[in-house]
Amino acid sequence: MKSKTSEIADGVFFVHSEMVNWVLLTDGDAVTVIDTGYPGQRGDVEDSIRAIGRDPQGIEAVLITHAHVDHIGSAQYLADTYAAPVLVHPDEAAHARRECHEVATPWDVLSNIWRPGVLRWATKLIQLGGTAKYGVDSPTAMPVPGALACPGGPVPVLAPGHTSGHTIYHLPDRGVVISGDALITGHLTSPVSGPQLLPRWFDHDRTAAAESLRIIGEVDADILLPGHGPIHHGSVAEAAATARERAGSAL
C-alpha cells in the first residue's frame, strides 16, 4: 500500500496510493500538506515529505478537502507533532470536529458489499484504521475567498455535496485543481476509470455533488489532482462534464 510521489509542476507534488491521494506544495523548505490519508498512512505522509527533500518539521499548514477519515486520518497527528495548523472551510469545521457526521454508514457499506470491489475496499479500509473516529480537535476556519497565505498559495473553492463544506484548491498560476472527492478518476468500488463521481452512497448530498461539477468546470485548469485515482491531464471543464454525463440518472 506504499505511495508514489510525482512532481507535477514546480513545487507541486502529487502522492498517489491505492486507497487515497494527497498533495504537497512547497516554497523553499516550507510545506503545505493537502489531505493526510488514513490513520495508518501517517508514516507514508511523513516519508513522502522526506522523499521530496523536505523535513516534516517544515510543515506550515495542513489543508483538508473534507473531513472523511481517509483525508484527515493524520491531520491531528501532524498538528500535534509539528505544530501545524489544520485549515478547513468554515462550512466543514463542525464536521472536522465530529460534531456532525456526513459519512457512509456501516449499513451503507454492508448493503453494497455485493458490488465488485466493495469488500476489497472495506478490508483495506479496516487495515488502515478507517473505522476509527478520527477528527481534528481545533481546526482553523480558513479565510475565504482568496489565496491562502501558505506555501503554494492555494485558492480554496467551496464544492459541496460529498460533504457540506467540501473544498477544492486551485493553483491558478500552475493550471492545477486539487479536487478531493468532488471529482475523482478511479476508486476500488467503481467499475470505470476516468473522471467520475464516487458511487452515490458515499455522498452526503448527491444533487449538490452533481452541481459542484459545474463549479469545478468553471475553474481554469488543465491538470486535475483527485482524491482517488490517477492524475488527469487535459481540460478540467471537460473532465467535469464527463463525470456528470457518467453519473446520468444516478444523480
UniProtKB/TrEMBL annotation:
SMART domains: Lactamase_B (SM00849)
Metallo-beta-lactamase domain: residues covered: 19-228
Xref: InterPro entries: Metallo-B-lactamas (IPR001279), NDM-1-like (IPR050855), RibonucZ/Hydroxyglut_hydro (IPR036866)
Gene3D superfamilies attached to this UniProt entry: Ribonuclease Z/Hydroxyacylglutathione hydrolase-like
A Pfam family per the record: Lactamase_B
Superkingdom as given in the UniProt entry: Bacteria
Protein known as: MBL fold metallo-hydrolase
Organism from which the protein derives: Rhodococcus jostii
Lineage of source species: Bacteria, Bacillati, Actinomycetota, Actinomycetes, Mycobacteriales
